Amino acid sequence: PPSSPCPGDTSVLAGLYGPAEAKLSKELPDRAALEVLLRPKVGLPGVLERSREQLLRQTCEAVVLGVLHPRTAITLVLQVLSDAGSLLSCCLNAACMGLLDAGLPLSSLFCGVTCALDPDGTIVLDPTTRQEQEARAVLSFAIDSRERKVLMATTKGSCSMEEMQQCLAAAQRAADTIFQFYRDSVRRRYSKS
């Protein structure tokens, strides 16, 4: 299974299972049922993991062409190996690489970018855990590869509308680098076979 492109020492492993037969209780008549499970490095998943699973699932559902696999189940398992900051973005990147690697039909790719706003208003991309703790606000975006539009956004702390727009613009610029990483990874993978 693929690992994801992430800042520094944060790493997440993605495993994708399916499309497989869905349990009757989870079966959707018109598309695949997508489940995302986020496993912390130690211990059991808690409230934070559950809320992140929802954000990750919504983002994946926005691009997976599930109508091509109705009445099936797709399960994406994300295992945190190390968390040194920007974890949600790392999970988003691992999720996209997992979907891509599994050959699922996608309308576009997506990537995650985290920004921290220093108390003085400076934007820090891919902040470390310490930078996140010292920040006035931490924003994470899921950005789509076709039009650089926002598929998901979450904010912790306080920032102005203008600062949010500046963070988004910085995240959209950073997304280009991540999409290039995806392309290079896929090219390397398929040039070996």
Would you spell out the secondary-structure blueprint of this structure?
Layout: E1 11-21, E2 33-39, H1 47-63, E3 72-82, H2 87-101, E4 110-117, E5 123-125, H3 129-134, E6 137-144, E7 150-157, H4 161-192
Parallel strand pairs: 2-3
Antiparallel strand pairs: 1-3, 4-5, 4-6, 6-7
Helix pairs in contact: 1-2
Describe this entry's structure for a reader.
- Belongs to the RNase PH family.
- With about 190 residues, the protein is an alpha+beta fold.
- The chain has one domain: Ribosomal Protein S5, domain 2.
- It is about 35% helix and about 30% strand.
- The chain contains 4 helices and 7 strands.
- Mean pLDDT is about 90; it is low at about 1-5.
CATH-assigned fold name: Ribosomal Protein S5, domain 2
What sequence of helices (H) and strands (E) makes up the elements? EEHEHEEHEEH
CATH architecture name: 2-Layer Sandwich
Based on CA inertia axes, which overall geometry fits? Answer: globular
CATH C-level class is: Alpha Beta
Order of strands, widest sheet: 5-4-6-7
Structural class, by secondary structure, is alpha+beta
Low-confidence stretches: 1-5
Biggest sheet features: 4 strands, antiparallel
Task: Give the beta-strand count.
Answer: 7
How many domains make up the coordinates?
A: 1
Q: Which range best describes the helical content: under 10%, 10-25%, 25-40%, 40-55%, 55-70% or over 70%?
A: 25-40%
Tell me the fraction of residues in β-strands, as a range. Answer: 25-35%
Overall pLDDT metric: 90
Separate helix tally: 4
Subcellular location: Cytoplasm; Nucleus, Nucleolus
Keywords: Cytoplasm, DNA-binding, Exosome, Nucleus, Phosphoprotein, rRNA processing
Protein name: Exosome complex component RRP46
InterPro entries: ExoRNase_PH_dom1 (IPR001247), ExoRNase_PH_dom2 (IPR015847), ExoRNase_PH_dom2_sf (IPR036345), PNPase/RNase_PH_dom_sf (IPR027408), Ribosomal_Su5_D2-typ_SF (IPR020568), RNase_PH (IPR050080)
